[in-house]
């Protein structure tokens, strides 16, 4: 059987030599890729002065390049994307329709309007274009500018657009990027990079992007590469073990920007139960937050705290609402959610065990691995709440909004809330408990790259913020003119 080849891209050069066989996550695909050990000397941008060519570009030049790239990322005509999509069917944690839908939408991230808004909201275009001058109260003139950096990106593979977002962030910051492709999506960044090489092989934006695959945890390679003389920042997405591994390399001069694993939750207020139509709207919204990406994203809801009440009447409302959520989830568009690729058998055993305990739980669905809604009959989440996955959610009844604070802790990323009036009551309290992103119910998967992420501003962190102080004794008190004191 012929193994597909995932070339290595190093600053405009496509490399297909020194191939070794590796396996994508899930064991469904083995492919060939250049042995990264053989190219370790070429991967880092050893001389930071070589970033200078990026500063001959204006922001308008970068927009022109991005627009041209977007035109070439048309799925119908781009053979690299088509091949990557087919191969990703085997490595991705989600199903084919979700994968293909994501590939079809990639080019939308490269519109001039979107990029302009993203950069203005996250960094400020003027700080990327030149020195921004202000006069301080002591008379000092202060100039500030954001410069690019030599950055290693350890990209997550649970959502196709993350590779393009990484490349885009690198372009607008005028940085040099090495992308370590993930085992569950080793082909997307590569397809985009190959398109860039075909389009403009000698363009500075092309020549400051490298994409390589190596097995995570390869200390022999990483200990040599992850050094301040090679890279200045590591942007790491991933699970607990992967990020814990990266921290061993962090030292003065090498910064870690951690986009670490999170859980997300939902809060459903009592007004949801004012009438059947409102219940059904909330159920559809919650189904979307549970089912998006088949619950493989940090943004996806897993436990929903529902202010139905905990008495008999309240539990009846909860169970009816749970049925509505399940029914709505089964009807979501197949580019958003489907029957999971592989329903976790350990999770299924937990869910099936709860079916035998109908005094404390109501389990709706899940017999065919399609996903399930577990309605707790007491105000506590299931013991395996942290393992909920594959479109399996737990609805927990509560009596008051105060009880809903249990939905939020230091691991909470997104909280979807319905109705908006409840959000207004809670949005100043939830961050104190750890919530990092608050959204209208149903929009958890609609990530806004114009916003902060994981309670930080990664775009600002990825840049180097440099200041230039301009002062003289005529404008600013001089330290050497201070009066001496006697002790």
Automatic annotation (TrEMBL):
<dbReference type="Pfam" id="PF05893">
    <property type="entry name" value="LuxC"/>
</dbReference>
<keyword id="KW-0521">NADP</keyword>
<protein>
    <submittedName>
        <fullName>Long-chain-fatty-acyl-CoA reductase</fullName>
    </submittedName>
</protein>
<dbReference type="InterPro" id="IPR008670">
    <property type="entry name" value="CoA_reduct_LuxC"/>
</dbReference>
<dbReference type="GO" id="GO:0003995">
    <property type="term" value="F:acyl-CoA dehydrogenase activity"/>
</dbReference>
<dbReference type="InterPro" id="IPR016161">
    <property type="entry name" value="Ald_DH/histidinol_DH"/>
</dbReference>
<dbReference type="GO" id="GO:0008218">
    <property type="term" value="P:bioluminescence"/>
</dbReference>
